[in-house]
Amino acid sequence: MKIGIAADTDQARRLELGEFLRAQRARLTPAMLGFDGGGRRRTPGLRREEVAQLCGLSTTWYTWLEQGRDISLSAHALGRLAVVLRLSAAERTFLFDLAGKRDPKAPGEAAPSAPSSLIAVLPRIDCPAYVLDHLWNAEGWNEAAARLFVGWLDAGRTERNLLRFIFLDPAARSLIDDWETRARRVLAEFRADYIRHIEDPAMQRLVADLVGGSELFARAWDAHAVVGREGGARGFRHPEDGLVRYRQLTFNPAGRPDLKLVMLTPEP
Fold first, then answer.
1. pLDDT tens across 6-33, in order?
2. Contact by Cβ (8 Å): 160, 152
3. Long-range contact list for 196-200, CB < 8 A, 24+ apart?
4. What's the CA gap between 100 and 81, in Å, rounded?
5. CATH number for 257
6. Do residue 120 and residue 94 come from a single domain?
7. pTM (2 d.p.)
8. pLDDT (tens digit, 9 = 90+) per residue, 208-253?
9. CA distance linking residue 221 with residue 217, whole number of Å
10. Quick one: 238 exposed, middle or buried, by C-beta within 10 A (0-12, 13-18, 19+)?
């Protein structure tokens, strides 16, 4: 039964991919891509052979793709197809997701900064709040977060990476309650982000530095634990306030899955 369900799912994805490609092909005019638009055309938009020609594919192969046949294109061929069809970033991601391929373009691109509108809202949040990028660098935070995270978000610091702070800075051991348990959990959460950006040189450098600089990180990294970044109780031993406890909430801004808005609401 499970095999049948998997087969049905694969077929549904192939058919959805074919319909998606046909719809994108239909919205392009021949003139947009340098073809003669004169004469009678039986279908709107580009012909299959025109798309295939521009992508460097055989017409038969591309036709099978639109028909939902059980064939596979390389990631680079899908990338050419996305360019020819003039797909937006969201449409390109959708194409690769349907095809079950990793986009070779995504990891190599520099991730854009957090939107200014997102950073601007942080001071209005009345509890510690900060924004992390895909490398877990803090891109913005409010005063409450700066006061709580002594050693990480202090004024004048140039290193704002949360992982480097937790695993390489002795201040983290004093600040974070039950440090080793939390550190292992954070690493397992980070691994889910790592795999999405595994080809990013900056990601590889970060992991290499952490493996080389932290015995705990090296041991836990080899364990290959993976968990989602979930909320829950968080404790800190603040040098002035003593033991304080929060409930963590994490959000991904719409259209920016590479960013995380983290809020720590005080527990009674």
1. 457 788 888 988 998 998 888 887 766 6
2. yes
3. 196/107, 196/134, 197/106, 197/107, 197/134, 197/135, 198/107, 199/104, 199/107, 199/108, 200/107, 200/108, 200/134
4. 15
5. 3.30.450.180
6. no
7. 0.65
8. 999 999 999 999 998 888 776 667 899 999 999 999 999 999 998 8
9. 6
10. middle
And the tokens for 29?
């005019």
Residues 6+ apart with CB under 8 A from 77: 55, 56, 57
219 Cβ partners below 8 Å, 6+ apart? none
- 73 is in which domain, residue-wise? 2-99
Task: Supply angle C-alpha 245, 246, 249, rounded to 5.
Answer: 160
On the CB side of 60, how many CA atoms lie within 13 Å of its CA?
A: 0
- Judged on CB neighbours under 10 Å (0-12, 13-18, 19+), 170 is exposed
Please check whether residues 38 and 133 belong to one and the same domain: no
Here the CATH number for the domain that contains residue 60 is 1.10.260.40
C-alpha span between 81 and 88 (Å, rounded): 12
Instruction: Give the amino acid at 174.
Output: S
221 CB contacts (<8 Å, ≥6 apart)?
187, 191, 207, 210, 211
